[in-house]
Specification:
Blueprint lengths: L3 H4 L3 H18 L6 H8 L3 H29 L1 H22 L4 H15 L2 H9 L7 H9 L4 H16 L1 H22 L12 H4 L6 H32 L3 H17 L1 H11 L1 H20 L5 H29 L4 H30 L3 H27 L12
Length: about 400
């Protein structure tokens, strides 16, 4: 990593953004790692399992646009503080009053969506401190908070076995409160915060076709990542008969792979250009998802395929957000919300479709294959726009960043 990166920006804020994002993502997907125990106790069907783990993803997707607007009006630090209070309060209620029905899991999932909306706060909080040539690296580090999904998969099933899954909601409050305290002390808003706009002005960005391209590209990369993170514990349990704890370990390995390479993906995009990096990642993601779809004979084989897919998707996440701030620097708050919303919608589709595919066809194959096809469709779209991007807003005389 270029040493000039560490001389730029504000490191305490970057760390605060990472930790906030990390813990928020941990609780956002918590229902997935706990899904085996919850489904057993509440008697859920395959479709209900899929919808239970997909609901926080959908809620997070929708709330990201509202959080993006809140970021522009209140600045990132205050918006993040409000979101953390809501999540802490909702988990406390779930722990104190208990969850006794399928409908209550969906209600909790909606409130956990606020944690998923942290994406629209953490990235602008970090991004506004760094110059264009370091955007991929800065947002890769902040975005590595995706690793919180791995913490949930690694720890939640074991805690549920030891203390009961209802008490896991209470135990999660401990790190959340500690990180919230650090966030309040360490995070600072950058001096270059654009003035808030009137609400109708936020919709103007949707008139730009590039906004829709970025939304689609991220729906595939992040959607694949969070959809798999939410679903794999249940998948390994049903497909290979692994117990909840072992299935959680397998899922954690996959998610750690995708999370830890996000900064690498951003840094590689800074060096070779986001378009080139993202193109390679779409091809690899499609290949590994297609391999996983056939229902490999052993769990370890599926683990290898999903790790490969998550590595590609994680690096793709970093590459997308190397490009977004170059094109929409003045609108980064609302664009983070819009692009993040699209990513969440992609995750909702994948998580819910896997459950329905299993219930209707008896196999997960069609769900994985359709998403692999979406990766190839995204590659086709990226190929169609790359020349225009490199000769307009991404031209060498307009930016120091590689496009």
């Amino acid at each position: 990593m270029n040493t000039s990166f560490w001389k730029a920006g504000h490191r305490p804020t970057l760390l605060a953004a990472f930790l906030y994002f990390d813990l928020a993502f941990m609780v956002w997907v918590m229902l997935g790692p706990l899904g085996v125990q919850i489904a057993r106790d509440l008697g859920l069907t395959h479709a209900q399992k899929g919808m239970m783990v997909a609901t926080p993803v959908l809620a997070g997707a929708i709330l990201r646009i509202f959080m993006g607007i809140l970021v522009d009006h209140l600045k990132p630090k205050m918006a993040g503080a409000i979101g953390q209070v809501v999540v802490i309060a909702s988990l406390f209620c779930a722990w104190y009053f208990g969850i006794d029905s399928y409908e209550q899991t969906l209600l909790l999932g909606i409130f956990l969506g606020v944690a998923g909306a942290s994406f629209a706060v953490a990235l602008p909080l970090a991004s506004r401190w760094y110059p264009p040539e370091h955007q991929g690296t800065a947002l890769g580090i902040a975005g590595a908070g995706n690793s919180g999904t791995a913490l949930a998969a690694l720890i939640a099933p074991s805690l549920a076995m030891a203390f009961g899954w209802g008490n896991v909601f209470g135990l999660a409050l401990i790190p959340l409160v500690l990180v919230f305290a650090f966030y309040l002390v360490a995070a600072r808003d950058a001096r270059e915060c654009p003035p808030p706009k009137a609400l109708p002005e936020y919709l103007k960005v949707l008139r730009d076709r590039d906004a829709w391209w970025f939304m689609f590209f991220y729906a595939v990369t992040f959607g694949g990542f969070v959809g798999l993170a939410s679903s794999l514990t249940i998948y390994f349990n049903i497909q290979y008969g692994l117990d909840a704890k072992t299935a959680g370990f397998f899922t954690a390995a996959c998610v750690f792979a995708g999370s830890l390479v996000r900064p690498i993906g951003g840094n590689v995009a800074d060096r070779i250009g986001g378009i080139k990096s993202l193109s390679v990642m779409y091809v690899l993601a499609a290949i590994f998802l297609a391999i996983a779809s056939v229902g490999l004979p052993a769990a370890w084989m599926a683990l290898v395929a999903f790790v490969g897919a998550m590595l590609a998707l994680g690096m793709g996440n970093g590459a997308v957000f190397q490009l977004v701030p170059q094109r929409f620097r003045k609108e980064i708050g609302v664009m983070t919300g819009l692009v993040g919303m699209a990513g969440g919608l992609g995750g909702f589709y994948l998580a819910s479709s896997l459950g329905y595919a299993k219930q209707i066809t008896g196999s997960y194959q069609i769900g994985f294959l359709i998403f692999a096809g979406l990766a190839l469709l995204a590659l086709t779209g990226l190929t169609a726009v790359k020349t225009r991007w490199r000769t307009t807003w991404g031209a060498a005389h307009l930016t120091a960043a590689r496009i």
